[in-house]
Design goal:
With about 300 residues, the protein is mainly alpha-helical. The chain has one domain. The protein has 14 helices and no strands. The chain has helices at about 15-40, 45-60, 65-70, 75-95, 100-105, 110-115, 120-135, 135-145, 145-170, 180-205, 215-220, 225-270, 275-285, 290-295. Helix 2 runs antiparallel to helix 4 (about 75-95). The radius of gyration is 22 Å and the shape is elongated.
Length: about 300
Amino acid sequence: MASISLPLAGAGPINGIVPSLLVLLCWLPYRARVQTLSGERRAVPGWRQACYAAGLLTLAIALSAPVDSIADQLLVAHMAEHLVIGDISALLIVLGFTGPLLAPLLRRRYIGKLRVFAHPLVAFPAWAINFYAWHTPFLYQAALRHDSIHALQHGTFLAFGMAMWMALLGPLPKPAWFGNAARLAYIIAVRLAGTILANIMIFSGTVLYPIYRAGDAKWHISPMGDQIAAAGLMMVEESLLTIGLFCWLFLKVAREAEERQALLDAAAAQGLELDEQRAARAVAAGRGDELLERITSR
């Protein structure tokens, strides 16, 4: 049987020193803004700075030459790379943001308009369309054949992944209707989208990306086995991430209930009337401490 050669898009300009330079370019302005805010008493918490740094580091590793080379040969490796870029790195980067930190960017005319992608009703459809479009056989394999398309694929996975997380965890104001129940539905919808694709890959009975046949032969794995392994990896990663998000949401609900009750108790102690809905809004907006300080200072 004639051998099948696989053109390695990863050997092109999206590898080597380029990811490191991109990481540096993203870190330097972030660090400068963090130092500015520290002087203005609006310091970015250390854990957020650590998340941002970890997000850039995992992104650089995912785009590095060794990782990208293996990802060009095995679907399961490419899936791992995409999960890191679109899920883990995007999540960590978003967790590194605060409102004051993003303020200068949002004041720029054209960049500020991009905040619409942080709206849940925009972020989820945009993310889902991008996710499924790139996993169609034509586009997925085109990315492996052409460096420019490959770079665009990774860029959109990161960008729409960040938008998806910004809608859920970002510092920008959320719609009034996007409470804890809506957040729960949002998490389920995102994970369901990934589960559907994983099940298609497992139960289709068809090799969706035959371009990997040469790489599969090199690594002594069947094309279908590689595809099932990639789908299984996606399901495991998403299941673990979903469990973590459920835990976060549970703790958030419990913390908000405590903060809300503390506000009501403080108002009662001061002989002030405080509506439960107002207390709930303040807590949900992250301004519970500010309201409590105003109440107790009277």
